[in-house]
Write a structure and sequence with these properties.
The chain is α/β, with parallel strands linked by helices and 493 residues long. It folds into 2 domains: 313 residues, Alkaline Phosphatase, subunit A, CATH 3.40.720; 97 residues, Arylsulfatase, C-terminal domain. Helix content is 31%, strand content 15%. It is built from 14 helices and 16 strands. The strands form 3 sheets. The chain has a 10-stranded mixed β-sheet with strand order 7-6-5-4-8-1-9-10-2-11, with helices on both faces. Helix 6 runs parallel beside helix 9. The chain is globular, with a radius of gyration of 24 Å.
């Protein structure tokens, strides 16, 4: 009887506590309370440069590594166009470049007739802020859809950057990654009675690779391991790739190389494990890691962390020496793949991973669903909410990639291709007398062997062509023809 009374007393004590906790959690997760969003985007960040990835053992990114332990890491995240302006517009619209109208760098802002994520969130009662690199239409002036604006024209500057804050132009002393972070924290701390969406889109780690002064001498004894596909001779690949590698891809050298001999294969330069370009690129990542740490600390101190979704990604990948290259644009894996981590405490399982093929065009519909909005039919991406909640769902098994030739770098020609889980097929419509590309990603992850003319792959090539045509029709693909460089010359090759 005494034991029973003690147990009864314990239950009387613990039940109110459980009810209080449940009520508190219910309040934090009520249908009426929308989550905040912090969307941090880097520029040209390769998918595998964080400390957690293990490739660059000397780089320490403890804060972003911690984010990966607290959220979900997408191990197959891709962009649909590997170029700054088009990809950034993809994030904002949930649409492919051919649809949102930002076909090439600095061409313009998204077509006003396509959905625009910030405006949709504002309609859902959100306060929105954009800080960082916009890089679509020229000019630093504020864009519609944002309650707060801090940006710069084009690429901006790493040191003492000119800025535009809500229409006020000025120059701020300091390092751009730190400056953007400081302004973002000030904005988060402002009193408000609305949920918020903060776009913190860094200039880092775009060229010219410039680390914060405090990091300029980081990892002095480090040596970068060479990529397995550094020694790509391009022997069985399109001739235009070798021409660009030999003579240059930019306007003048490309034009002047017309008609010059192109070798059947390239002899690779020796790998430089201390290449200062890549060292400074990696050093610039250290300030990005600090940026996330400062933002995360601010959110925690304001007790917003339980109801704030954090998205961390990049606008495209980067070669960093793979295939003897240091850019993006091409439809190879290092150019296509991006880092993507999403955290939402209590909803997304901490430390989880997902292997589905997710795209930059999936971010906008995902945020809209979390905000309780209706995803516009015009959006071509898919909401990732079922994946983030580990629910069974039918997901894509292939996606289309598009790239449109630029006058700035015409040595990268217009491309359209399809990637499935195991294969990749790429067409170059302008290069009618050159070859296309076909890769077995499972057996050749470095994409060293082009199978387009290899015996035994005729059926696969036919299948991939059909899949490409199917997706092109499904998404209304077309080539806007914004820039055709030396088209007559290309037809003659």
């Amino acid at each position: 009887m005494k034991y029973y009374a003690g147990k009864q007393y314990f239950l009387l004590l613990i039940i109110p506590i459980c009810i209080a906790v449940a009520c508190s959690d219910s309040k934090n997760r009520s249908n009426d309370e929308k989550p905040n969003f912090v969307f941090m985007l880097t520029d040209d960040q390769a998918w595998n440069v964080l400390g957690k990835d293990g490739r660059y053992t000397f780089i320490q990114t403890p804060n972003l590594d911690q984010l990966s332990r607290e959220g979900m890491v997408f191990e197959n995240a891709f962009v649909t166009t590997s170029l700054c302006s088009p990809s950034r517009a993809c994030f904002m619209t949930g649409c492919y470049a051919h649809k949102h109208g930002v076909y090439i760098n600095s061409y313009g802002d998204p077509d006003p007739d396509v959905p625009f994520l910030p405006e949709i969130l504002r309609e859902r009662g959100y306060e929105t802020a954009f800080l960082g690199k916009w890089h679509m239409k020229h000019g630093s002036e504020p864009r519609n859809g944002f309650d707060y604006w801090l940006s710069f024209d084009g690429q901006g500057k790493y040191i003492d950057p000119p800025l535009n804050e809500n229409g006020r132009e000025f120059t701020e002393k300091g390092y751009i990654t730190d400056i953007l972070t400081d302004y973002a924290i000030r904005w988060i701390k402002e009193p408000r009675d609305k949920p918020f969406c903060l776009f913190l889109w860094h200039k880092a780690v775009h060229a010219p690779f410039t680390p914060a002064p405090r990091d300029s001498a980081a990892f002095p004894d480090a040596r970068i391991p060479e990529y397995d596909n550094w020694y790509d001779t391009m022997e069985d690949k399109p001739e235009w790739l070798r021409r660009g590698w030999m003579y240059g891809v930019h306007n003048k050298p490309w034009r002047e190389s017309a008609g010059k001999p192109v070798p059947a294969k390239i002899e690779p330069h020796p790998w430089d494990p201390r290449d200062p370009r890549w060292m400074n690129y990696l050093r610039a990542m250290l300030a990005v890691d600090k940026s996330y740490a400062d933002i995360s600390k601010c959110i925690e101190e304001m007790k917003l962390d339980d109801n704030t979704i954090i998205i961390f990604g990049s606008d495209n990948g980067f070669f960093l020496g793979s295939h003897q290259r240091g850019d993006k644009r091409l439809m190879y894996e290092e150019s296509l793949r991006i880092p993507l981590i999403i955290k939402y405490p209590g909803v997304i399982e901490a430390g989880s991973k997902n292997n589905e093929m997710v795209l930059n065009i999936d971010i906008a519909p995902t945020l809209i669903e979390f905000a309780g909005g209706q995803i516009p039919n015009a959006m071509q991406g898919k909401s990732m909410v079922p994946l983030l909640k580990n629910k069974d769902t039918r997901w894509r098994k292939s996606f289309l990639y598009e790239y449109f030739q630029e006058s700035y770098a015409p040595g990268f020609v217009t491309a359209v291709g399809v990637r499935t889980e195991n294969y990749k097929y790429i067409e170059y419509p302008q290069m009618i007398n050159d070859i296309n590309e076909l890769y077995d990603l499972k057996n050749d992850p470095g994409e060293m062997k082009n199978l387009i003319n290899s015996p035994g792959y005729e059926d696969l090539k036919t299948e991939m062509k059909k899949e490409l045509e199917r997706i092109k029709k499904e998404i209304g693909y077309y080539d806007p023809g914004v820039y055709d460089f030396d088209l007559e010359y290309m037809k003659s090759k």
